[in-house]
């Protein structure tokens, strides 16, 4: 079990487990896991070793690995409190590389032994947070200080992702239908949408600003509709441009998946084109389309991050503010919720797909 | 055998985009009043960008290939689901988020971007390798075993030899994706063709943004053209 070995190595080797810094911007001084946790370091190590033991049933292994992840979190919180006790109030204790590697290893072990245990780990982390165990960690301090902004950013992020997804659907579905009826048009559309993917995302977001500015200068009436060259408009447009390909592919693939013999039989029975679509093609296309929709939802949540660069707000704005200030906690405060939202969307969509009848 | 014609459209596109990135052309198009990015510095950034992309793709190619071979061996089939799931998660998290998560752990510079490109590149290579190895007809494998080849020889001389063109297709996709996404490295302090984009955004200089974008896309198409030309077509 490689993840367990990596995680244990990260705890026992001289890697910084915590970083203790005089304030939120200065780089911290590294403290190894052995120095920070003392004898307690044996607890996560033992739980990781137990979690990797193949003789044990999968759920015991997963539970043990999950407890290791929670132990890492709780012990890091306690150690942070000890380290900060004699320091000025502005001092911060943040996670170091050793913590991250050990945490990723523990979570990978959970995923390998029984992924559903991830829900219990998430619940445990929420309990640790609510119980005040993590209050001394820099990330939590930063989160408390910006709770209001964080909540707003999550909502904006979801709204932007939803708008981009809706726009992409509005464009991709009719295009896929047109391409399905005229294969030559379809081939050209496919090449054009694939070409978009080669444009670096950061460039597409940035280039839309001057293009939209020129458009708004040419047609000032658009301004009255509340459209602006900076803000949500470029973010939604650019994200939708990247989502169009997976959506277009899945709709086209779904439409093409109907057996020609079944379609011919329906025609022979005298069904109209509309009824063939509704009763033969769509039921067969639905599972394929659901797979494409899942990819698009997850990509939307990730890509909207770049909206932070063009003034659209959302969690990306926190990430880029953090990058600009070299404030690592602020970066994490933006990036971790994006990761969680993307994983949650993926899990929910997979469950919905399975209920739809055919796992992807 | 080198096939120039296969890569020609991508090569022409690369040249056209490179012209678009020239200071004179870009500032004429954008009507910018601020200074464009000089060619010499753009060229230096392009070399850095290419090196960074390769640094991300090479480990991804090795890991993807190794995982692909392991999960198609009789002893490794149990790992298939876990490998697929891990690669899917790695692909679902966009590089900019990986960079933001990796900077706190590894600091500014190349490391966060290399990690992001690596995670992003494993899935195309893994998928191509697994697909290609599974497409080898079982009779061929049985025949090779019957002649007395060891499992290692069957893998090297029969399976990988037959699967190679498809695997190279996956490597090409991974490389082109890496070149296109390496621009985000500029946000984490790595010198790439994303650097003019970020500077342009900060100073509201659209000329720089266009130059960086066109140069990045040009490099991506150049990589595509070179690999298409170097790799023999599938018969």
Automatic annotation (TrEMBL), chain A:
<dbReference type="GO" id="GO:0045259">
    <property type="term" value="C:proton-transporting ATP synthase complex"/>
</dbReference>
<dbReference type="GO" id="GO:0031460">
    <property type="term" value="P:glycine betaine transport"/>
</dbReference>
<dbReference type="InterPro" id="IPR035906">
    <property type="entry name" value="MetI-like_sf"/>
</dbReference>
<feature type="transmembrane region" description="Helical">
    <location>
        <begin position="154"/>
        <end position="177"/>
    </location>
</feature>
<keyword id="KW-1133">Transmembrane helix</keyword>
<dbReference type="GO" id="GO:0015078">
    <property type="term" value="F:proton transmembrane transporter activity"/>
</dbReference>
<feature type="domain" description="ABC transmembrane type-1">
    <location>
        <begin position="154"/>
        <end position="349"/>
    </location>
</feature>
<dbReference type="InterPro" id="IPR000454">
    <property type="entry name" value="ATP_synth_F0_csu"/>
</dbReference>
<keyword id="KW-0812">Transmembrane</keyword>
<dbReference type="InterPro" id="IPR000515">
    <property type="entry name" value="MetI-like"/>
</dbReference>
<feature type="transmembrane region" description="Helical">
    <location>
        <begin position="330"/>
        <end position="349"/>
    </location>
</feature>
<dbReference type="GO" id="GO:0015986">
    <property type="term" value="P:proton motive force-driven ATP synthesis"/>
</dbReference>
<dbReference type="GO" id="GO:0005886">
    <property type="term" value="C:plasma membrane"/>
</dbReference>
<protein>
    <submittedName>
        <fullName>ABC transporter permease subunit</fullName>
    </submittedName>
</protein>
<feature type="transmembrane region" description="Helical">
    <location>
        <begin position="225"/>
        <end position="245"/>
    </location>
</feature>
<feature type="transmembrane region" description="Helical">
    <location>
        <begin position="30"/>
        <end position="52"/>
    </location>
</feature>
<feature type="transmembrane region" description="Helical">
    <location>
        <begin position="284"/>
        <end position="310"/>
    </location>
</feature>
<feature type="transmembrane region" description="Helical">
    <location>
        <begin position="115"/>
        <end position="134"/>
    </location>
</feature>
<feature type="transmembrane region" description="Helical">
    <location>
        <begin position="189"/>
        <end position="213"/>
    </location>
</feature>
<feature type="transmembrane region" description="Helical">
    <location>
        <begin position="59"/>
        <end position="81"/>
    </location>
</feature>
<dbReference type="Pfam" id="PF00528">
    <property type="entry name" value="BPD_transp_1"/>
</dbReference>
<dbReference type="InterPro" id="IPR051204">
    <property type="entry name" value="ABC_transp_perm/SBD"/>
</dbReference>
Automatic annotation (TrEMBL), chain B:
<dbReference type="GO" id="GO:0005886">
    <property type="term" value="C:plasma membrane"/>
</dbReference>
<keyword id="KW-1133">Transmembrane helix</keyword>
<feature type="transmembrane region" description="Helical">
    <location>
        <begin position="173"/>
        <end position="199"/>
    </location>
</feature>
<protein>
    <submittedName>
        <fullName>ABC transporter permease subunit</fullName>
    </submittedName>
</protein>
<dbReference type="Pfam" id="PF00528">
    <property type="entry name" value="BPD_transp_1"/>
</dbReference>
<dbReference type="InterPro" id="IPR035906">
    <property type="entry name" value="MetI-like_sf"/>
</dbReference>
<feature type="domain" description="ABC transmembrane type-1">
    <location>
        <begin position="46"/>
        <end position="232"/>
    </location>
</feature>
<feature type="transmembrane region" description="Helical">
    <location>
        <begin position="50"/>
        <end position="71"/>
    </location>
</feature>
<dbReference type="InterPro" id="IPR000515">
    <property type="entry name" value="MetI-like"/>
</dbReference>
<dbReference type="GO" id="GO:0055085">
    <property type="term" value="P:transmembrane transport"/>
</dbReference>
<keyword id="KW-0472">Membrane</keyword>
<dbReference type="InterPro" id="IPR051204">
    <property type="entry name" value="ABC_transp_perm/SBD"/>
</dbReference>
<feature type="transmembrane region" description="Helical">
    <location>
        <begin position="206"/>
        <end position="231"/>
    </location>
</feature>
<keyword id="KW-0813">Transport</keyword>
<feature type="transmembrane region" description="Helical">
    <location>
        <begin position="92"/>
        <end position="123"/>
    </location>
</feature>
<keyword id="KW-0812">Transmembrane</keyword>
<comment type="similarity">
    <text>Belongs to the binding-protein-dependent transport system permease family.</text>
</comment>
């Amino acid at each position: 079990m490689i993840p367990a070995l990596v995680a244990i190595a990260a705890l026992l080797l001289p890697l910084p487990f915590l970083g203790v810094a005089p304030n939120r911007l200065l780089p911290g001084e590294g403290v190894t896991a052995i120095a920070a946790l003392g004898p307690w370091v044996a607890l996560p190590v033992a739980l990781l070793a137990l979690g990797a033991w193949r003789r044990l049933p999968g759920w015991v292994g997963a539970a043990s690995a999950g407890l290791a992840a929670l132990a890492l979190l709780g012990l890091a919180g306690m150690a942070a409190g000890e380290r900060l006790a004699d320091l000025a109030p502005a001092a911060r204790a943040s996670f170091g590389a050793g913590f991250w590697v050990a945490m990723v290893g523990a979570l990978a072990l959970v995923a390998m032994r029984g992924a559903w245990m991830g829900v219990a780990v998430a619940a445990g982390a929420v309990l640790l947070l609510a119980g005040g165990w993590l209050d001394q960690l820099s990330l939590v301090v930063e989160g408390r200080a910006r709770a209001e902004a964080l909540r707003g950013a999550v909502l904006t992020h979801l709204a932007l992702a939803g708008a981009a997804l809706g726009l992409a659907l509005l464009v991709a579905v009719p295009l896929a239908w047109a391409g399905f009826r005229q294969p030559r048009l379809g081939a050209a559309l496919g090449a054009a949408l694939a070409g978009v993917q080669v444009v670096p995302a950061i460039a597409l977001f940035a280039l839309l600003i001057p293009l939209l500015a020129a458009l708004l200068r040419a047609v000032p009436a658009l301004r009255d509709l509340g459209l602006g060259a900076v803000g949500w408009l470029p973010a939604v447009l650019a994200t939708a441009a990247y989502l169009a390909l997976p959506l277009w592919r899945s709709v086209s693939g779904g439409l093409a998946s109907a057996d020609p013999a079944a379609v011919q039989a329906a025609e022979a029975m005298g069904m109209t084109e509309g009824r063939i679509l509704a009763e033969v093609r769509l039921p067969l296309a639905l599972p394929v389309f659901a797979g494409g929709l899942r990819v698009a939802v997850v990509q939307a949540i990730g890509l909207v991050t770049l909206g932070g660069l063009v003034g659209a707000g959302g969690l990306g704005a926190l990430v880029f503010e953090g990058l600009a200030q070299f404030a690592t906690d602020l970066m994490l405060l933006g990036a971790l919720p994006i990761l969680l939202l993307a994983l949650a969307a993926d899990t929910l969509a997979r469950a919905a797909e399975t209920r739809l009848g055919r796992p992807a | 055998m080198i096939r120039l014609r296969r890569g020609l459209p991508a090569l022409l596109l690369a040249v056209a985009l490179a012209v678009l990135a020239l200071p004179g052309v870009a500032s004429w198009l954008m009507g910018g009043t601020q200074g464009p990015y000089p060619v010499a510095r753009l060229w230096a950034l392009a070399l850095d960008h290419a090196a960074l992309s390769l640094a991300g793709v090479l480990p991804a190619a090795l890991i993807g290939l190794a995982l692909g071979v392991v999960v198609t061996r009789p002893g490794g089939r149990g790992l298939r689901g876990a490998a697929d799931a891990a690669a899917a998660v790695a692909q679902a998290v966009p590089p900019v988020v990986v960079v933001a998560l990796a900077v706190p752990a590894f600091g500014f510079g190349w490391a966060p971007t290399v990690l992001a490109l690596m995670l992003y590149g494993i899935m195309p290579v893994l998928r191509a390798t697994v697909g290609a190895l599974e497409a080898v007809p079982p009779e061929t494998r049985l025949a090779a075993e019957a002649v007395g080849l060891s499992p290692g020889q069957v893998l090297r001389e029969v399976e990988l030899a037959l699967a190679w063109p498809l695997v190279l297709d996956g490597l090409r996709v991974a490389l082109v994706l890496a070149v296109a996404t390496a621009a985000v490295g500029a946000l984490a302090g790595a010198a790439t063709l994303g650097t003019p984009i970020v500077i342009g955004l900060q100073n509201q200089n659209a000329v720089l943004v266009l130059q960086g974008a066109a140069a990045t896309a040009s490099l991506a198409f150049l990589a595509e053209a070179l690999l298409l030309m170097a790799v023999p077509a599938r018969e």
